[in-house]
Design goal:
Blueprint: E1 9-13, H1 17-29, E2 34-38, H2 41-50, E3 55-59, H3 67-75, E4 82-86, H4 91-99, E5 104-107, H5 112-135, E6 138-141, E7 144-147, E8 152-155, E9 158-160, H6 164-174, H7 183-191, H8 197-211, E10 221-224, E11 228-231
Parallel strand pairs: 1-2, 1-3, 3-4, 4-5
Antiparallel strand pairs: 6-7, 7-8, 8-9, 10-11
Helix pairs in contact: 2-3, 6-8, 7-8
Length: about 230
């Protein structure tokens, strides 16, 4: 999401230039949103990969890649709100749109005031969710305090500098206490299956050196011989 105080950024995806122009005027000029536009499904995905958006207005019928496929692709990697726009009125299309990950649905022609109201409601809800996340991201277990939002870790009040993968590894452990992970599972979860099992062992050793009182006798990250590793509370 955009930083507080900045205009919310909306990606409009529609193959009708007149529709895009009207939406850009109503939402950009009148409401102050920052607008970017795509005119086909492929362009929409390309823009989404490069930018950060607070909401996507997505037409169902698009050239190259359908709106449903675009919706599914975006949802597979992001929780950005998506409002589907379509000229179709069949209930099955609505159900499919919501099933593919859309948050809301409007049939063309729609009332612009209604669209604006729905956008405001969705963005307000997302802000509330983000605020709640910020207040529920601190995990404290014995001497370890982990802030998932700020991505910081302290041990006994001392700030510990973790690499990206070390942090992700500790987060997986600390949010799933007592769950035993095999080295293969950790490799898949943290490294997307890239590398070898020794990568896991090296990172476990380094993480222990940073968070354990005595890395030779760990009290947090425990080895279950022949199975894997787990985090104990």
């Amino acid at each position: 999401m955009n930083e507080e105080g900045m205009a919310k950024k909306i990606l409009i995806v529609d193959d009708e230039p007149i529709a895009v122009k009207g939406l850009t005027f109503s939402l950009g000029k009148q409401e102050g949103y920052e607008i970017e536009a795509a005119y086909d499904g492929q362009q929409a995905l390309d823009l989404f990969e490069k930018g950060q958006y607070d909401l996507v207005l997505l037409d169902l019928m698009l050239p190259k890649i359908s709106g449903l496929d675009v919706c599914q692709r975006i949802r597979s990697e992001s929780d950005v709100p998506i409002i589907m726009l379509t000229a179709k009125t069949d209930d099955i299309d609505k159900l499919m749109g919501l099933e593919y990950g859309a948050d809301d649905y409007l049939t063309k022609p729609f009332n612009m005031l209604e669209l604006k109201a729905r956008i405001r409601n969705i963005l307000r809800r997302m802000e509330s969710i983000d605020a709640e996340k910020k207040t529920n991201t601190v995990i404290k277990i014995r001497d370890i305090v982990m802030d998932l939002f700020e991505r910081t870790v302290t041990v006994g009040g001392r700030l510990v500098n973790l690499t990206l993968k070390e942090f992700d590894l500790l987060q997986l452990f600390i949010t799933n206490p007592n769950h035993v992970y095999s080295r293969g599972e950790l490799l898949d979860s943290i490294w997307d299956g890239q590398g070898d099992l020794r990568t896991v062992d090296v990172h476990i050793r380094r993480l222990r050196e940073k968070i354990e009182p005595d890395s030779a006798e760990p009290v947090y990250i425990i080895t279950k011989w022949g199975v894997g590793y787990y985090f104990t509370e």
